[in-house]
Amino acid sequence: MGNEIKTKVAIVSMSACEYLPPLISLMNDSRWTQYDVKVFTTRWSKGKYPPYAGPRTVYRTSTHFPTFWLINLFDQLRFAIYTFLHLLLFRPAVILDIERGSSVPVLLYLILFRRTTRLFMHYYEYSTLEELSRCALPNRLAHRGEVALQKRASWISQCNEMRIRAYQNDYRLPDGICHVIHNYPPATWQRHFRLQKTISVPVKAVFCGVRMDLETLYVREFSDYVIRQNGKLVWDIYLASPSREIEEFIRSLNSPWVHLYASNIDYSQMPERLAKYNVGVILYKGITLNRKYVECNKFYEFLSCGLDVWFSSRMEAQHSLVTRDCYPKVVMLDFDHMEDVNLEQLISHENLQSNMPSYTAEKAADDFFHVLKATI
């Protein structure tokens, strides 16, 4: 039994896995132990590399993430060559391709080993065809590779139903290969669930992410609301890579109730940190379809730790999750018009029943692992 040959699986992501918390959760699923898994990705510059339960080895190349397209193209070519050569050495029977940036090395490999390789594709973002036509050359090349891969895929998934239907309509994909893997946190997060029968002032709100900007997020509007509460509401912002624009904006507020922490919180330590707060805020303006249809992983992470969630009404994919008679509360807010929003009503749990959320990454991936097992 110990000498049983395991099916080889390659996970390919040009974005460092640590930038994608739902991918971290997927890679830590215990069901990967049935397979021989290797990951091909890029370097993470914001903290230590966490251990992963599934992959045997994680290979990384370096990237610059510049704004100049020529350097970006160089990074993409280097990643493609490095990953393609390692795929030739590893000879996986299954490839899980994450996002279109990884499409070129996967396509090159499948040209050689098309008949013996099963392809799975998963996306954490969505771009319309019009948006892709206006992208820089590296992204347009990656998109061509993505379209070519679709014909070979056994599985294509997005993080919610709205996005997968939009993607399916764009490329006229058959129903049988289109799936959803929701951005849920691991089941272990439920150990940190904290029952908040009441929320008292000062209310502690939190925002976590890699970066933030004033154009696509309601940062300015929510900051104004916090300041108007005159100490009854405090907002902490954790960003792994805060921009100069955001740093200067928060500094200009000169408020004791809005705090920016330029700090990356290790994903395994995130539940413990979130449990110190009362409310998690999600501030997308919904300028693009990607943001209208976003299924933010933080939404479910906040709920799993017992926080109420305040989210933007522009996030259409979350509308059905608004709560009426239970807590943690999920409240939809129009951040363009916060003048008359009553804080006491927002935080009230009076006459509400407690409800521990059951969103888990393991459950979200059930269909994926079932199809994976059935196709090999």
What are the main properties of this structure?
376 residues, Rossmann fold, seven-stranded parallel beta sheet, six-stranded parallel beta sheet, 14 helices, 15 strands, globular
Summarize the structure in words.
The chain has 376 residues and is of the alpha/beta class. The protein folds into two domains: 8-183 and 362-374, Glycogen Phosphorylase B (Rossmann fold, 3-Layer(aba) Sandwich); 187-354, Rossmann fold (3-Layer(aba) Sandwich). Helix content is 33%, strand content 19%. It is built from 14 helices and 15 strands. The strands form three sheets. Strands 3-2-1-4-5-6-7 form a seven-stranded parallel beta sheet, sandwiched between helices. It has a six-stranded parallel beta sheet with strand order 10-9-8-11-12-14, sandwiched between helices. Strand 1 (8-13), helix 1 (21-27) and strand 2 (36-42) form a beta-alpha-beta unit. The model has no long low-confidence stretch (mean pLDDT 92).
Summarize the topology.
Layout: E1 8-13, H1 21-27, E2 36-42, E3 57-61, H2 69-90, E4 94-98, H3 103-112, E5 118-122, H4 129-133, H5 137-150, E6 153-158, H6 161-171, E7 178-180, E8 203-209, H7 219-228, E9 233-239, H8 244-253, E10 258-262, H9 270-274, E11 279-282, H10 289-292, H11 297-304, E12 308-312, E13 326-327, E14 330-333, H12 343-347, E15 353-354, H13 361-364, H14 366-374
Parallel strand pairs: 1-2, 1-4, 2-3, 4-5, 5-6, 6-7, 8-9, 8-11, 9-10, 11-12, 12-14, 13-15
